[in-house]
Specification:
It is built from four helices and no strands. It is an all-alpha fold and 106 residues long. It has a domain of 46 residues: Ribosomal protein S18 (30s Ribosomal Protein S18), CATH 4.10.640.10. Bound molecules: zinc ion.
Length: 106
């Protein structure tokens, strides 16, 4: 494959605009610290799910990376209570082999 070096010779700060934004994807542009008006509610709170079911793979998959890592709360948007529930559920799901512990690449 190619090296990390792309075409030499182009110097200067012209940076290509990011290609089109896909619909259905939330823009994660968020202002600096301070005003934090957008209310991001934990999806379990929103759906009033008290306990995260570790057998619910589809839900849990959402909170695990492709490598099997648990997605941190700041990204998943869960509240502390449910994030803990999710983490616990993921660990249980791993234990019964619904979710891998790690995925080795290559
Ligand atoms: Zn919650």
């Amino acid at each position: 494959m190619t090296n990390g070096i792309d075409k030499a010779g182009t110097t200067g700060g012209s940076r290509p605009e990011t290609t089109g934004r896909s619909a259905g994807d939330n823009d994660e542009k968020r202002g600096g610290r301070g005003g934090f008006s957008r209310k991001k509610v934990c999806r379990f709170c929103a759906e009033k799910i008290a306990v995260v079911d570790f057998k619910d793979q589809n839900t849990l998959k959402y909170f695990v990376t492709e490598r099997g890592k648990i997605i941190p709360r700041r990204i998943s948007g869960n509240c502390a209570k449910h994030q803990r529930g999710v983490a616990l559920a993921i660990k249980r799901a791993r234990n019964v082999a619904l979710i891998p512990y790690t995925v080795t690449m290559g």
